[in-house]
């Protein structure tokens, strides 16, 4: 009846700013309507309490796909918390509900009920404190979909930065930079740039692992022993346009960035500080390689801002816009 795609938004950690920024969706819809229906997966009573705390006149409605959208109303798919949540105060008792939100959104995407899922931030520490091993959305969704390898990419400020390794101790990174991991990651990145961004022959800038990309082996041999052979083979056999390995300290200069469509960094804090400097608050996270579309905000739970009214919803709005655009492709 209503041809607009349905985007599922998970509220994330209930004690964080996820509820705050989700409650700003009706205000955004009044100013600039989304080209989609938005349903927030959350505890309805949590949203009502937080709206009262923030003095936001938000109308909440139980999700019903047969009802027409209303710009002044937030549609909510209710999944109850185990215990009442207090803004800024973590409680491990609610960890399973946080994951249940992800499971429900994922199931909806897999069944075709939802066109994409957008995730507000979760708190890894409190989930692990509840006795549940959890390293992040990216890894969790890969496991739930039996996807052998996914790629985390952040986009914003005119940059797209993907990661070879994600939430991994820095001391463990060199051993994780293997020929297999690099080749598989580049294949996913190459394919998904076409599927999600419409760039069928992307130019990928590949960062070296070591300072100065190893300085010819003087500062490390990963570039010579692992990276260069993989890049040469993918260029020759699969026709990929790969520039690198490039020194990470100059890769993010404008003349180099203009030569590529995206960057592949070797580890989390090699690529993301630059991107977040350029786009913090309005950048997004995209999981590449999943059988569903998933985007996310580029920030954490910001417990100190929860319930204050100071949380910026810009990244959530952009994540939804990008999810809508990707669903069209």
- The Rg value, from CA coordinates, equals 20 Å
**CATH architecture descriptor of the largest domain:** 3-Layer(aba) Sandwich
**H/E order of the elements?**
EHHEHEEHEHHEEHHEHEHHEHEEH
- What is CATH's topology name of the largest domain? Isopropylmalate Dehydrogenase
Fourth-tier CATH superfamily name of the largest domain: Isopropylmalate Dehydrogenase
Average of the residue pLDDT scores: 95
Regions with pLDDT < 50 over 5+ consecutive residues? none
Major sheet details? 12 strands, mixed
How are the strands of the biggest sheet laid out side by side? 3-4-2-1-5-12-11-6-7-10-8-9
3D architecture notes:
The protein has 329 residues and is α/β, with parallel strands linked by helices. It folds into two domains: 1-147 and 290-329, Isopropylmalate Dehydrogenase (3-Layer(aba) Sandwich), CATH 3.40.718; 151-285, Isopropylmalate Dehydrogenase, CATH 3.40.718. Helix content is 39%, strand content 18%. The chain has 13 helices and twelve strands. The chain starts with 5 loop residues before the first strand and ends with a helix.
